[in-house]
Amino acid sequence: MKAALAAPHTAALEAARAAGGNALDLALAAATTLVIAYPHQCHLGGDLIALVRLPGEPVRAVLSAGAAPVGVDVDAIRAEHDAMPGQGPHPVTVPGIAAGWAALERLGATVPLASHLRAAATLAEGGLPVAKGVARAIARRADAIDADPGLRVVLGSLREGDTLRQTALAATLRTVADEGVAAIYGGAIGATLAAFLARQGSAMTLDDFAAHEVELAEPLVAEALGATWHVAPPPTQGATLLAMLSEAPLTLARARAANAARDRHLADPHAGPVDVQALRDAQGPQAAASATVPPTGDTIAIAAVDEEGRAVTLIQSLFQHFGAGLLDPETGVILHNRGGGFTLEEAHPGVLAPGSRPPHTLCPSMIFAGDAIVAAGCQGGRAQPQILAQVAPDLADPGSDLAAAVARPRWIVGGAELGTPGETVLAEPGAQAPEAQAAESGVAFERLPEPTGMAGHVQAARLGPDGLSAGSDPRADGGVLLT
Fold first, then answer.
1. Rg of the chain taking only CA atoms, in angstroms
2. Which has the least CB within 10 A, 5, 22, 281, 327?
3. In 3D, which of 61, 43, 64 has the Cα closest to residue 53?
4. Nearest Cα to Cα of residue 366 among 54, 51, 107, 100
5. 366 strand-pairing partners
6. Residue 142, Cα to own-chain centre: how many angstroms?
7. What pTM was estimated for this model as a whole?
8. How far apart are CA 29 and CA 123, in angstroms?
């Protein structure tokens, strides 16, 4: 079958080429491989959000975002911390990624998930060269890696080009291939991870793992730029992208207003009402709330389409480089810190609560423009809507060059999540950035010396009247596959 795939590491493309199949198969081959090849951005201890379109069917959102432990003692965390911690055991929520893979398999994959897992296990055991992006992340988080025995053994001495081997993870992946994802959600692997987290001070139990469910939800939909846009609903920030698409090109005022609305309103609709209209309208003060989430938010995006009309945009994450800074030596699993997106403010809808999912940054999108279908997503933490909004005119143009579109210079605005002391616009060389708007608004402006991963790794794949095409962001280590 003819299909197109964009992914941020060449090993993911090679795995997809070997697996073959439809868009779902290529996406799963790439996703399971990236856990091995890009361990700073995604791992078996992370989450997954996706949008899937099957031939003749509406788009569905696949939400496999894990919840906080039912037994979490929120008052004890408040007594110990002024804001939600971004590292250690407290921000670890149930990892949803494996359950998300299984849900995607059930939607119409032709290659068994177990086959992808065994291929990934072989790669993890044999090793592969450390990519440039992984090496940068190891250098940036050297202190956290050195502080955790599990991370230190696996990653501590590695540099670009060295061989990365993950033998414990390989064994875990083979167990999941043999026993199914139930090995994590109520089985022996889940029990091992829960015991590890308990030793670190987490309230997580095997019952929390067993309670995890994937939600198949209706996406949010909007018309913008002459196209129809589909995004994932809360607890993800898809509505923030729709708010930014209401004004093109994206202005600093619109970006700040949408960010501020997200920081005020985004939460888990399972835990209480979420004002989706307020998220989409983004009206009111433009000053964003102080970010309590960690900087350098990290995820991977995969986009795939095939000639029969299937489309998949999949994002899986650890949230920060190497997540919570915890690797369980027995399973080889790196745990994410998605719970860093919670707040400890009692009146906030996104407050940490037992069994609640945190406000989520993952923002896959699917666009219908004329006779074309485009699957798109990006790495970039809280800046994902800003990044996609700047690429949006090209995504909505069936005749655009996707490779050129995802490579163009961009700008982003943020604060703590960008590692800046206050709200700042960071602009890549050549970006048409809102410098004058920043000066008028009292927002700091910085022109960067070179392109940066903070401006995201956009992946896009399109099925149009002229056939299949794709674009992979040169800020990452990947490319495109056309089968």
1. 20
2. 281
3. 61
4. 51
5. 230, 375
6. 22
7. 0.96
8. 12
3-class DSSP assignment, residue 349: coil
Q: pLDDT per position in the chain (483 positions), as tens?
A: 999 999 999 999 999 999 999 999 999 999 999 999 999 999 999 999 999 999 999 999 999 999 999 999 999 999 999 999 999 999 999 999 999 999 999 999 999 999 999 999 999 999 999 999 899 999 989 999 999 999 999 999 899 999 999 999 999 999 999 999 999 999 999 999 999 999 999 999 999 999 999 999 999 999 999 999 999 999 999 999 999 998 889 999 999 999 999 999 999 999 999 999 999 998 755 544 444 444 455 689 999 999 999 999 999 999 989 999 999 999 999 999 999 999 999 999 999 999 999 999 999 999 999 999 999 999 988 999 999 999 999 999 999 999 999 999 999 998 877 878 889 999 999 999 999 999 999 999 999 999 988 898 999 999 999 999 999 999 999 999 999
Q: Look up residue 275 and give its amino acid.
A: D
Token pair belonging to 185 = 């959600």
- Between CA 459 and CA 22 the distance in angstroms is 18
CA distance 128 to 131: 9
User: Which tokens sit at 30?
Assistant: 């790439």
CB atoms inside a 10 Å sphere around CB 83: 16
Give the span between the Cα atoms of 301 and 9, in whole angstroms: 10
CA distance 309 to 224: 22
Sequence ranges of the domains in the chain: 1-476
Rounded distance, CA 261 to CA 264, Å?
5
Asked if 439 contacts 445 with a C-beta cutoff of 8 angstroms, the reply is yes
**Domain 1-476 fold:** Glutamine Phosphoribosylpyrophosphate, subunit 1, domain 1 (3.60.20)
Q: Count of CB atoms within 10 A of residue 126's CB?
A: 12
The Cα–Cα gap between 480 and 483 comes to: 10
* Residues 6+ away with beta carbon under 8 Å from 138: 40, 130, 145, 155, 158, 159
